Structure formats: structure tokens, C-alpha cells
Amino acid sequence: MLKKLFSVLAIFALASVALAQEAATTAAVADTTVGLKAIGAGLALGLGAVGTGLAQGPIGAAAAGVVAERPDKFGAMLIWFVLPETLVIFGFVGFFLLK
Amino acid sequence: MANDYAYINGRIRVMRTELITERSFDELLSSTSYAEFLRLLSEGSLAEDLRDSTSQNSGLNELDAALSRNFHRLAQKVHSFGKGESAQELGVVVAKWDLINLKTLARGIMKGRSSEAITEALIPGGTFPFEVLKAASSSSDLLAAATTLSAAGVPLGRIFRDAAQAFAASNDAMDFEVSLDKGFYAWARSSAKSNSLKRLLGREIDLRNAFSARQIKGQANPGRFFVEGGNLNESEFVRLAGGDVTAATAILAPVFEAPTLEEADLISRKLMDEAASNAALSDTLGPGVAAEFLRRKEIEIAKLRLIGRGKFYGVPIESLRKELGNA
User: Fold this and answer.
1) What ipTM was reported for this prediction?
2) What are the structural domains of chain A?
3) Contacts of B285 in chain A (CB under 8 A)
């Protein structure tokens, strides 16, 4: 009788461990999804900013050259200079969609 | 380096927009007198340099001085834009006028011309300070001039000294010029890092060799007149100097076959214009843009000198227009 009782208790104990394991796996998957989304959002914003930086480097240098010769061209040069900022805006959109 | 040229070429492109347009040249050509020509000219980008030449009693000397001043100012300005490697490359672009000036200086000294006559023929556009060139022009011989030029600390001073020594050894003016060309192009090729400038120098060397082969046709040992660095190799040069036109490439053949030296010079200048234009278009972040701008500026100055003379002496417009086509 005592032997049967221990067997039943052992089954219950294993069953509860198994049930706890399943709940933990579901939570881990959810955590991973959140983490990957955060990485994706970071990449969207970060890579957009890097692209903008790469584009603005030579544009800024050329614009500085033009403005050094013709200060009246400052406005036009500013427009050319800020055009690559659209890449960061796309990055922001991606960032908020993933968040 | 790329960012250096983004800034430099941005400035040069703006300076290019201030070059005299074809329409403005037509207006200058149509001016009814020298005074009107000066008035029209002083309304444009050359106003700053033309102050002295627009006063009463001023003549062609004042105009020449103003145009030289303008060219010198812009060449120095372009040269000053560079830093490090870009300064070295822009130095090569500007040093073209050093080579011309050193040859003019040497020819003047060899022929015993006065310092004033030599100075008048110089183009104030290279890396040598003009005062140093003036001081060298009063030297009694080439070695003395080389000592004066070496003091300027410009690399070409050493090259001139080597060429002067070659002349002292043989007393042959051709040896001087060949030594100067060889030294200059070896220095220029080692200083040029970008492919566009190397290609431009290669074209210049090829044209120099084609001209040289034309002049020494039939002479013994032609190989010593060959300058390395172009597409034409020494054996092709020797064949060309021997009269074998098939040794020249399709591009160089017209220079060699032109009936007169003037026509050969005209073809050669057009080929250099084309090469400079290609360098500017193919390498937007390189020194080709500066080379093309200075070439255009040089042509502009040459045209203005021609129109100025034409207006001063009352040459008919049609004759002037024909001459302008060759400028």
C-alpha cells in the first residue's frame, strides 16, 4: 500500500515538473521574440543612421566647399545636405513598427 | 582622401561657373573699341584684377599684367585647397607651368636675353615663387640659375640643377630639355596617386614624345630623347623617330603627320583638352577637376589676350574669330 502511495506521489511530482517545463519554454520563446524585435529595431535605426552618415560625409564636404566660394548658396546646399536624413526617418519607422 | 576632393572639387566647380561663357566671348568680340572691351571685361569675374588696366592711358601691358595676376591668383588658390596627399597631387597639376617657365628661363639665359625679356615671357602660375624666377632670370648661366632656384625649396629646383649639369657636360640645349622633361615626369608620376592624374600625365608624355620624335626625325641614337611614362614605349618611339608612322597609336598619329608644327601643336592641345575633360568626368573625387579647370582658365586667358590685342590694334572681328578658334 505504502509502495503504491509513493508511486502515485512520484508520478504527480514528475507531472508537475513536466507541466512547469512547458510553461517555462513558452515564456522563453516569448522572451526571444521580444529580444529579436529589439535587435531588429536597433538595426533599423542604427544602420539607417550609418547610411546617412556615409552619405552626408562627402555631401557635407562638397557643400562646405560650395558655401566657402558662394555663401549665398547656403540654403540650396543645406537641402542637399539633409536629403540623406530620409534614411534615418525610414529607420525610425522600422523602429516603431517593430517596437 | 575622397573627402578632401569632395571639398576641393566643390569649390573648383563653383569657380568654374565664373569662367567666361561663349556668349560673353561673343559680346567681347563685338565690342567696338578697346575701351569698351575693357569695360565689358571689368563687369565680370575679372574685375578684381583689372582695376589698374581700366584707367586712362593704360595699354596692353596693363591688361597682360592683370590677366597674369588673375591666372596666378586662381592657380595658387587651387593649390592651397589641398592637404597632404591632395596637396601633393594638386602640386603636380600646377607644376605644369613650372616646367614651361623653367624651359623659357633656360632658353632665355642660353640666348643671353635680358632679365626683363625673360620675365615677360614667364607664366605666373606654378609652384615657384615668381620673385625667385625673376631673380634666376638675371643669372649669367644655367648653373647659377639652378643655385637660385634650389633655394626656393621646390622639388623642381633639384631637377633643374641636374638638367643644367647635363647641359654643362654637352653644351647641347636638347640635352637640357630632355633631362628636365625626364626629371619632371618621373617626379610627377611618383607624386600622382590617383589613376585619373596618372592617365593625364601619360597622355602628356605621349604627346611630348610624339613632338620630340617629329623634331628629331632621322637623328642618330633617338632613344636618348625618349621620356618614360606614356603608352608609347621606347622601341616604338625609336621607330617613330625613324619615320615609321605605324609605330604611333591612332591618337598620336595625327600629331606626327600634321604638315606644320603649328597644326601639330593645335591637335596636341585639343587632345590634352579632351584628356583633361575625361579626367574631370571619370574621377569626380580626384584631381582631374582641378586640372580641367586650370586648363580652361588658361585657354580663357589666352583668348582674352588675343581679343585685347585685336581690339587695341583694330583687327576685324572675323579675323579675330578665326584666331580664337585656334587659341
Assistant:
1) 0.71
2) 2-98 (1.20.20.10)
3) 58
